Amino acid sequence: MTSQQIEYVLTLAHYKSFSKAAQKLYVTQPSLSQYILGIEKQLGTSLFDRSTSPIRLTEAGEAFVQTAKKIKALEDNLINELADMTHLNRGSLKIGASSFRASCLLARSIATFCNTYQGISVSITEDDIDQLKTMVKDGELDVIIGTGNFDNKYFHTEELATERLYLAVAINNPINDRLKEFRLEHADIKNRTLNYLKAKPIDLIEIAGQPFVSADHGEFGSTILTSICQKSGFEPNIVFKVKNLETVFSLLTANLGVSLIPDTLIRFGNVMSHPYYYMLDDTISLNTISLVSRKSGYFTNAATEYCLTLKKLVDIGTWRV
Prior knowledge:
Arc Repressor Mutant, subunit A; alpha/beta; about 20% strand
């Protein structure tokens, strides 16, 4: 396999479309098609099933891609090891996070890092946590930022910050009247007002009959929501499952359901209008945001320096946009 063959096949496998892959690779669609056909002729087997839409990998294609990813990871490791010898004058840094975390939490840390190490090429991959785990495990990413369980057989984790979940309820939802003594506003949480410091947690069983809005999967997905509600003694009535946390927030503020929202979005999100919030018991509401890397992989100096930069900004409260 040549580096170009690996790049072309992996790009086509990712986009599942000759036109989209060609656009990404800055080549024409016919040129890409002929190039892939040439690889398949050289190998004596088809890598892609073109009879489906979108196209998909054949069994041979799956084997090619798995090996290609390993080779690319080894090449990237070598490049980064050599780059480290030049004292971070060149090299790359590949960071993964959900779109929510990338937009709310990473801008300042990346800007600080890039200003300090101008020779390092930084890329950000936004995806759900399960896909990001796979990518860091395969060596496609240096570090990811998120919450959840990470198998210590494959991952090294380091605690970055603690995140608290709040029950969020649209302002015009009548249930707010019943829960008035527990109610918090955006400013209370952001500024840690006296009202925030005196706030008592509600028992989630109080809203057991309410419809819920949830992300379909990931860090704030329906599995997490259901687990928290079950610990409180009921099964949630999830009426909407959507792709990301930002959409969850839009639906709940439109009073299409209640949901659980992290304080990172409440404090750092670019949100104009907020619902009411209710504190939950620590045993069900606290998450650890972690820096996660591949346990067996080479951790570059660039990745080390970025993690140090991020942790410093977290410690002084300035990692947000």
